[in-house]
Automatic annotation (TrEMBL):
Gene designation: gabD
Domain Aldehyde dehydrogenase: 3-454
UniProt source species: Gordonia aichiensis NBRC 108223
Protein name: Succinate-semialdehyde dehydrogenase
CDD domains recorded: ALDH_SSADH1_GabD1
InterPro entries registered for this protein in UniProt: Ald_DH/histidinol_DH, Ald_DH_C, Ald_DH_CS_CYS, Ald_DH_N, Aldehyde_DH_dom, ALDH_GabD1-like, GABD/Sad-like
Pfam families (alphabetical): Aldedh (PF00171)
Keywords: NADP, Oxidoreductase, Tricarboxylic acid cycle
UniProt-listed GO biological process terms: tricarboxylic acid cycle
Length: 457
């Protein structure tokens, strides 16, 4: 895939970039190693100062950064600006709390026959980050902020369709004061990832992306015995029970499905509704979809912009066509929008069966799949009948039902009476084929630390 900014709203190529040569990549890895040797000795206070300076720059430049992201992957300007400000918040979160998270953790010295015993968190070194296009800055920042605060240095291999976002992140960190080699963007194709990951100068890796990409990185890292964190796909359930506030659940469901033009791993994708709430929910849900404005993502009135890539739209079309061909009912939408760019109508499909690809595949776009269930056990069974386990939503005011959903839904996170999202203050990650490891909070900063045991007689 060419490294280029292609405006999804028009299909026109805006700017193309040359891939780095092997020699240039080798030079970048040398810079990273040299940078780590000095950077690991900096104080928490100094790192926090640079993180806060990065946040300041992001806030000051938010409008321009948002326009760049909208041009590169088609998200609305409002959501792009919100993402930029969220990145600033992420940098400040680790600036404010990182030192506490990385402080020596006391152990029971007496129990182990020591005068002192504790765990110390130390950086691993050069960490490779392989990131996707759907949240061009936030995906990378939720790795970069904790990794840099912990004293690691980063190498970013971003998706080939968001090169300007990738270069901006390196640039803003440099302008904030981070020394040379602390964070570098490598404009390279996927074919060069394996050689970089196998390079002894690289200590660990993190990947957010597709299941096949995760399998590849995990296999290579396993062969090299290097630590990895993987955040892969999701097919999150959105369960609605009769006791729920149905109008609020339906309104939130619209946002939960079409956020980021439907291109989010933690977007709700499978709407599992109790039969006693089904008709009321579906009427309100469909009305909400009908009110959505699809169009130019730079226009303030637009709710849903284009899909980020032409192939992404084709994949979505094939899922919908397969479902309809096997008996699914289209309540609204169901086809591409007749205009330039890679637009697809917000779509709701009902009567989903196991024979349809959409039953088990992740629909990465504004397409919702509806299921009617008779009871809570059936709802949970459908929710868990997937290879994914990233997030989940359940709507009920019944405390016993809430506890069942929390305990029984197989996922890395469960949101009750609200939409799944990510916060620096909450751990983020999945189980099953949605990956392993955790991002954000103290869990995220500890992922790329050597947790060293210290025992002193």
């Amino acid at each position: 895939m060419a490294i280029a900014t292609i405006n999804p709203a028009t299909g026109q190529t805006v700017r193309e970039f040359d891939s780095l040569t092997e020699a240039q990549v080798d030079e970048a890895l040398d810079r990273a190693v040299r940078g780590f040797a000095d950077y690991r000795t900096t104080s928490f206070e100094q790192r926090a100062t640079w993180l806060r300076a990065t946040a300041d720059l992001l806030e000051a430049e938010a409008d321009d950064v948002a326009a760049m992201m909208t041009e590169e992957m088609g998200k609305t300007l409002a959501s792009a600006k919100a993402e930029t400000l969220k990145c600033a918040k992420g940098f400040r979160y680790y600036a404010d709390h990182g030192a506490e998270m990385l402080a020596d953790e006391p152990a029971d010295a007496e129990a182990v026959g020591a005068s002192r015993a504790y765990m110390r968190y130390q950086p691993l070194g050069v960490v490779l980050a392989v990131m996707p296009w759907n949240f061009p800055l936030w995906q990378a920042v939720r790795f970069a902020a904790p990794a840099l605060m912990a004293g690691n240095v980063g190498i970013l291999k971003h998706a080939s369709n968001v090169p300007q976002s990738a270069l901006y992140l390196e640039d803003v960190l440099r302008r904030a004061g981070f020394p040379e080699g602390c964070f570098q963007t490598l404009l390279i194709g996927s074919s060069m990832v394996e050689s970089i990951l196998r390079d002894p100068r690289v200590a660990a890796a993190t990947l957010t992306g597709s299941e096949p990409a995760g399998r590849s990185v995990a296999a290579i890292a396993g062969d090299e015995v290097k630590h990895t964190v993987l955040e892969l796909g999701g097919s999150d359930p959105y369960i609605v029970m009769p006791s729920a506030d149905i109008p609020r659940a339906a309104k939130t469901a619209v946002t939960a499905r079409v956020q980021n033009n439907g291109q989010s791993c933690i977007a709700a994708k499978r709407f599992i509704v109790h039969t006693d709430a089904y008709d009321e929910f579906v009427d309100a849900f469909t009305a909400g979809f009908r009110s959505l404005v699809v169009g130019d993502p730079t226009e303030e009135a637009t709710d849903v912009g284009p899909l980020a890539t032409e192939q992404g739209r084709t994949d979505l079309e094939e899922l919908v066509d397969d479902a309809v061909g096997k008996g699914a009912k289209v309540l609204i939408g169901g086809s591409r929008v007749d205009r330039p760019g890679w637009f697809y109508e917000p779509t709701i499909l009902a009567d989903i069966t196991e024979e349809m690809e959409i039953y088990s595949a992740e629909a990465f776009g504004p397409v919702a799949a509806l299921y009617r269930v008779e009871n809570i056990d059936d709802a949970i069974a459908i929710a868990n009948d997937t290879t994914f386990g990233l997030g989940g939503n359940a709507w009920t005011t019944d405390a016993a039902e809430q506890e069942q959903f929390i305990d029984r839904i197989e996922s890395g996170q469960v949101f009750i009476n609200g939409m799944t999202t990510s916060y620096p203050e909450l751990g983020f990650g999945g189980i099953k084929r949605s990956g392993y490891g955790r991002e954000l909070t103290s869990h995220g900063i500890h992922e790329f630390c050597n947790i060293k045991t210290v025992w002193i007689a």
